[in-house]
């Protein structure tokens, strides 16, 4: 197809970036030709730094970046960004303000030796593909934010990159425009064979566009795999949050699962009583050894909530100690309330759990920050997932 990347390249990045203080990125990433890999993680995790190292705008402290089998970056070697075959598209379009849309798209082609007429013709073709057939003569100041980002996408794809790096290109757009640009990028990527690494904070980008999902937290990869697999079996609380589920780490004891150190303790009936064990045969799950680390995963909508408006936290702890709640039931304190689609999301602490309830129910319960609540989740609504031995201990709230 004219103007489309002829072939993507194998990307193999083993990146270490050490900066002043305690910041350290130590992450490995591999992508096959034509593969779209989404990268997600909390702010400051190192996602943009990783893309910058691949693109050539961040220097490595150790490790290498290989594109198509060629080492383009190491502590002693750095191929200029323009010669790597990788293009970085960020949150801002960064168009040349003194150039027309056509000239902006043609700029990279001209820099690579294309004749002016050929570059202009290719630019018009790409503007048509991204939905801007009549915008060639307009300057960036005459275009909306969404139109400018379309021009930036056309400019990035027009040079036939072997690796396309997308650093949250939809973040600065409103939801409607972002949806349109997402659909447009998806369509263009489907027609190309470029290798794509996409940093995003929106799980919709990952589910709609990516083959694999890589999660980076605190400078290291904490989980990776097919998008569906990662979201179904979150390995950390952050991954659980983007998957829209609760995840609490704990241990097995006496045929039950309980939190390791939360106060008050949360106990959920064992697999024989209804909880499903993710990744374990039923016969094995029913004989889980005491002390084995497991994560309980359940939907916010599966939790029932009862308010105890007159209770204090000290009194709640005393009550829990004197009369242990039944399995699947525990006392908690409301720490935050958020409006959710069609309802209210209640966030509680000790342990951190999200609960979805209708708006009228939230009003009737008179919930507020600090309210003590009793939560209940049925064992049948809980999935127990084994925690690999190499994983860190029970994590703190993000």
Q: How many separate helices?
A: 11
CATH top level of the largest domain is Alpha Beta
Low-confidence stretches: 1-5, 279-285, 393-398
**Can you summarize the main beta sheet?**
6 strands, mixed
Q: In percent terms, what proportion of residues is strand?
A: 25-35%
Radius of gyration: 25 Å
Structural class call reads alpha+beta
Distance between the first and last residues' Cα: 46 Å
What is the overall silhouette? Answer: elongated
Helix content class: 25-40%
Total domains = 2
Provide the CATH architecture of the largest domain: 3-Layer(aba) Sandwich
Question: By CATH's scheme, which homologous superfamily of the largest domain applies?
Answer: P-loop containing nucleotide triphosphate hydrolases
GO molecular function, one term: ATP hydrolysis activity
Organism: Microbacterium rhizomatis
Protein name: ABC transporter ATP-binding protein
InterPro entries: AAA+_ATPase (IPR003593), ABC_SmlMolc_Importer (IPR050093), ABC_transporter-like_ATP-bd (IPR003439), ABC_transporter-like_CS (IPR017871), P-loop_NTPase (IPR027417)
């Amino acid at each position: 197809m004219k103007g489309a990347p002829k072939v993507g390249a194998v990307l193999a990045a083993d990146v270490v970036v050490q900066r002043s203080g305690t910041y350290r990125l130590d992450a490995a990433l591999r992508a096959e030709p034509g593969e779209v890999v989404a990268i997600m993680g909390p702010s400051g995790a190192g996602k943009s730094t990783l893309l910058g190292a691949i693109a050539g705008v961040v220097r490595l402290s150790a490790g290498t970046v290989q594109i198509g089998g060629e080492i383009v970056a190491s502590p002693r070697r750095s191929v200029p960004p323009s010669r790597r075959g990788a293009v970085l598209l960020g949150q801002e379009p960064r168009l040349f303000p003194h150039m027309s849309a056509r000239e902006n798209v043609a700029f990279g082609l001209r820099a690579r030796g294309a004749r002016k007429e050929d570059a202009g013709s290719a630019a018009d073709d790409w503007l048509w593909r991204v939905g801007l057939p009549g915008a060639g003569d307009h300057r960036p100041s005459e275009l909306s934010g969404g139109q400018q980002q379309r021009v930036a996408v056309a400019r990035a794809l027009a040079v036939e990159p072997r690796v396309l790096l997308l650093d949250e290109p939809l973040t600065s757009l409103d939801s409607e425009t972002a949806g349109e640009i997402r659909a447009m990028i998806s369509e263009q990527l489907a027609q190309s064979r470029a290798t794509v690494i996409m940093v995003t904070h929106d799980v919709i980008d990952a589910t709609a566009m990516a083959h694999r999902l890589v999660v980076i937290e605190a400078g290291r990869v904490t989980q990776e795999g097919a998008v569906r697999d990662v979201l179904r079996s979150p390995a950390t609380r952050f991954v659980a949050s983007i998957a829209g589920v609760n995840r609490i780490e704990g241990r097995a004891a006496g045929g039950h699962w309980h939190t390791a150190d939360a106060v008050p303790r949360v106990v959920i009936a064992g697999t024989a009583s209804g909880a499903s064990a993710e990744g374990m045969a039923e016969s094995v799950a029913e004989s889980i050894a005491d002390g084995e680390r497991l994560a309980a995963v359940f939907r916010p909508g599966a939790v029932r909530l009862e308010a105890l408006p007159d209770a204090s936290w000290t009194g709640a702890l005393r009550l829990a100690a004197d009369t242990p709640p039944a399995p699947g039931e525990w006392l908690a304190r409301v720490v935050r309330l958020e409006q959710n689609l069609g309802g209210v999301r209640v966030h509680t602490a000790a342990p951190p759990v999200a609960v979805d309830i209708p708006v009228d129910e939230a009003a009737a319960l008179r919930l507020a920050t600090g309210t003590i609540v009793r939560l209940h989740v049925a064992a049948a609504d809980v999935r127990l997932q084994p925690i690999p031995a190499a994983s860190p201990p029970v994590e703190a709230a993000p």
